[in-house]
Amino acid sequence: MRLALWAFISIAFAATSTGCATLAAADSNALWRIVDGQCVMSMQSSGTPGFCTRVDLQGRYAILKDINGTSQYLLIPTDRVSGIESPQILDKDAPPYWSDAWEARTYVEKAVKQPLRDEQLGLEINSTYRRSQSQLHIHIDCMRNDVIDALARHHSDTPGKWRWEVIDGNRYRIMRVTSLAAADDPFRVVARGLPKDAVMASQTILVTGAGPSAASDGWLIVNSSLDLDNGSGSAEPLMDHACRLARKS
Questions:
Q1: Considering the entire predicted model, what is its pTM?
Q2: Contact by Cβ (8 Å): 100, 54
Q3: Is the pLDDT of residue 1 over 70?
Q4: Residue 170 belongs to what domain range?
Q5: I want to staple 210 with a disulfide (CB 3.0 to 4.6 A). Which of 153, 194, 198, 218 is the partner?
């Protein structure tokens, strides 16, 4: 029974990788089954997170190690939330998923055995059409060195203003913010700035530090869309799941 559970979890973890050839055949409810059916139940019954790294029942989220990469973790709501297209993420009482994901950086740093500068850490969510799972999950991992360099020019952007950038041939709009909560929550920032014919389901969002210290430099919200010419439905390729920057430090 335990071997069968491990096999199920391995398949589920693999399903979170957008580059995996098995995505089409993946169980789209795998992450939800792990979090709700195993991690939450374990936390409620024994006070331990089970196969998750952390379960915060009050905060309504779990942290799960992804099988893809050495340092990639996922923040997953313990509520049933389908993804970026869900109106629940814009509710006035929605949990601060991005702030919680940013705080979960400690697990990435433990995995790479060193602290990361804030511009070296990335959080990302894929569009509805570039994911395999029907439960919202935010990827937490290292950024690519060349993407850090490309975004450095936005270090001193006026907060609250969109700027455009082409990275890897895809167009992204970038905004510097001074918080990840309340009005600056990335879901809210992207949603209120969408053209009338655009929808949240087509959006991808990446968040990283605007400089070495987000406390003073702020954060960058990086957004693209399948509705956009030369846009993208996944900003995950801007991250580095091998965390090569840690090996160079």
A1: 0.91
A2: no
A3: no
A4: 2-248
A5: 218
